[in-house]
Amino acid sequence: MEEGISRIGVSLPKSLLDDFDNIIKRRGYSSRSEAIRDAIRAYIAEYRWLESEKGEIVGAVVVIYDHKIHGVSDAIINLQHEFSGIITSSMHVHLNRDQCLELILVKGEMEDIKRLVDRISVIRGVLNIRLISAMKELKD
Q: Which of these CATH numbers, 1.25.40, 1.10.1220, 2.50.20, 1.10.3470, describes 14-50?
């Protein structure tokens, strides 16, 4: 094995791996490893962007979750109450029988919004979360 390269093992649901394999085939990747490296690079870049933003912003937190997972809806609602000082509005959408989308509009300090995003992202049953920043800084 080449020095500087580490091997890892990852457990994934079959449906997730099948979706990933279909995407990497369509995109023309030569291997799963290269596609996984690109996905990890994108994740790191997004995290670094999130960490670098400062000041007051407005934006939207988009959360997709599996509502069949016990407690996920309650946990998201409880966090919305906890962070009510930065949440201006929210909307709940039923995507299908098993999945829901929560759109949470936020306005406030980036540090507080990052805390909200971090807290939601670790809830069991959350499938995807994205912060879309509408403005970097607000001016009066």
A: 1.10.1220
CA distance 82 to 136: 24
Cα 64 to its chain centre, rounded Å, is 8
Q: Do residues 59 and 108 touch, judged by C-beta distance below 8 A?
A: no
pTM score: 0.70
Rounded to whole angstroms, the Cα distance separating 65 from 69 reads 9
62 or 132: whose pLDDT is higher? 62
**Angle of CA points 63, 67, 71, to nearest 5°:** 95
Q: What is the mean pLDDT of residues 56-82?
A: 95
For domain 55-135, the CATH class is alpha beta
Identify residue 139 by its one-letter amino acid code: K
Summarize the confidence of residues 39-56 as an average pLDDT.
78
Count of residues making up the chain: 140
Answer for the pair 82, 63: CB distance below 8 angstroms, yes or no.
no
**E strand intervals along the chain:** 56-66, 87-94, 99-109, 126-135
